[in-house]
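Field reference: sequence -> structure
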Amino acid sequence: MLDFLAPDFLDNTSTSLAIGKFDGVHLAHQQLLGLLDSKGAVLVVDWQRAKEVLTSFNERTRLLQGYADRVYFLPLEQVCTLLPDAFCRLLLSQCPHLQKVVVGYDFKFGAQRSGDTQTLKALLPPKIRLEVMPAFKIKGMALHARHIRACIKRGEVALATQFLTRPFSLEGVVISGQHLGSVALYPTLNMEIPPHALLPAFGVYAVRVKFPNNPAHFEGVSFLGERLSTDRHLALETHILNAQIHTPPFYANLFYPKDTRQRLF
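Structure field:
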């Protein structure tokens, strides 16, 4: 993502702009992004160190680029004290050729979330049309990222897959494990768990594994939980099925298409 506040930033191309956090780029987000025109851009407004996100900034950028060539990032830490009118002036100065702004029905902006869609409509010049997407509902309930996070925490990753339109994934650095598998059972990949990562319920999952610079996906079985039989530390360990990984990669991405096979707690 390009820094929306960079000193040399100026978007002289975009005529429409979608604004939001877009964590997960889920079904509701996809409907909203479909309202952009052919010269649309996306502005992600989020905390730089947000906890338990559905998508890292790298993955979010990749997904959003499927809807717009230009994806920008505006850190909330630097703009959370701006009044609504100052926020609008910032948008217009950075994107001077806008003709349309797209937001969700529950969009809030400005200091203490004091601005809403009505505030934004009043502040935008007449030449810029505000398009507000209504709530995207499933069985009468508006879909939000928090609902998908709750599904994942319960281990209902298959339901989360439906809302995301793709499997939930965990990415991280491969680290040295206890070296027990290669002796007693089978070789495993041990992944470092970031301190604020969104984790599914403890259990054993069927996963697909992807490594950098390798187009292949490997089938695997992944364990998430405390190693009760050894050191009782939280572990994320994955066994690759039907393939030999002679040199463990530095980085891995796990995709969770199905619910846990076994609930441990």
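Note: The two ends are 39 Å apart (CA to CA).
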